[in-house]
Amino acid sequence: MNTAEKPYFNKLGPAVSYGGSAKKNAVDAATELHQCLAMARPACVIFFCCVDYDRAQLSDTLAELFGDVPVLGCTTAGEISPLGLPPGSITGFCLSAEHFVVETALLQNLATFSERGAYDTVKEMMQRMENRALAPMAYNSFALSLLDGMSIREELVLSALNEALTGIPLVGGSAGDNLHFRDTHVYYDKQFFSNAAVIILINTTCPFSVLSGHHLVADGEKMVVTKADPAKRIAHELNAEPAALEYCRVMGISLDELNSVSYALHPLSVQVGENSFARSIQQVNDDLSLTFFCAIDTGIVLTKMRDGGLVAEFEDRMEDVVAEIGEPQLVIGYDCIHRRMEAEGKGVYEELSALYQRYKVVGFNTYGEHCDAMHVNHTFTGVVIGEADAFTA
Question: FIST C-domain domain: which residues (predicted)?
Fold first, then answer.
């Protein structure tokens, strides 16, 4: 049996277990995942899977194996696992009821999303959590979000959720489908859903730290979005020129070079105060407009960015977190698909993979990263969970 066929896992005390499978058959993969994650008192299981799995088989097998344990998840544009960055796999983690209390909710039909409904849903989750919390809610809780990555509703949903959470950090990612852009799903209550969002509220006795950032540095030249369709995230014109042509001019590439790799290697950002937030291009359209993964609108100024050291920047951030809360039991990671493609294109893929293994990152490559009310791109966003604190239940 070669390494890719073996189940992989690492159990780190009673608080967290994680693992997964690189098997291609959905039943076999779910079975290996269960073997890796099984613990005496699970609070919940969260998984991330390749879109190529037979979803019906995967769903049925997970439901059978995990029974009444809440299982949440989504499809991906790539998985981050204890083996690093293996393609075509399933990975996940289990949180112990000894150290975590979990409340979950599903927001369906995002096309007719109600901000008031989402607000009320989160408030109800928080009220239920108050009665079960293991530690004070305000300082010992965080929320995770998983959204259909083709819904084009992230900004609206995240704004409503963030308002309802009143200071509790929100971290998450938009589900992917290996850059097919047609088939993204979230998983809740033993079935897959499209056009939906999963919200997970977690209270814990473990120390944790939220991190969100990118490695990009401004490279000077700017472009103004002079014509856009915000509802569809399409920029028709940049600097009053067809968007694709102007993007190519600024980046020094030809039109026939435009593809997902070139977008990853030639990033853009918007400046908000002293902070820059990446805006990734999803695809070029027949009319030479550009569709983005994140919000775009007329008047937005886009800045050309360059690589400031993808691997080094992540390592520096993790060293700061370790100094704050100690070595992680687990890092729940939401990593933009363009970072993975950039790592491949620049020859640092194996180095990044090894770094994620070192820091116990389990997560997925997204169509957008969530941090509080922000929906961003080309960013690593996550929650670092440290060893269980002294005031365990």
Answer: 243-373
